[in-house]
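Board work, copied verbatim: PH domain-containing protein
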Amino acid sequence: MSSDCHALVVKEGYLWKRGEHIKNWRKRYFLLRKNGAFFGFRAKPENDATEPLNNFTVKGCQLMKQDKPRPNTFIIRGLQWTTVVERMFCVDSPEER
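↓ predict structure ↓
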């Protein structure tokens, strides 16, 4: 991982992430760092050397809340090169969202 893995963690915990190609829901442990780096893992990482399954930035992204297809869903919409990418997540309660 790059120097992004050393930025301060501002939020962490489990989220349900909907697959971008196969549209099933998977529980993942995410770390949001102060610089906007957003890393996803199968389980809470033991150390900074653990390679993430998901690695993108939320800096400059749009956040949209909705209750479909599941309650407490939110979408992070951002650019990946020149393509708009929407990543869908959900949590167990409105407070977590």
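The CA atoms of residues 63 and 93 lie 17 Å apart.
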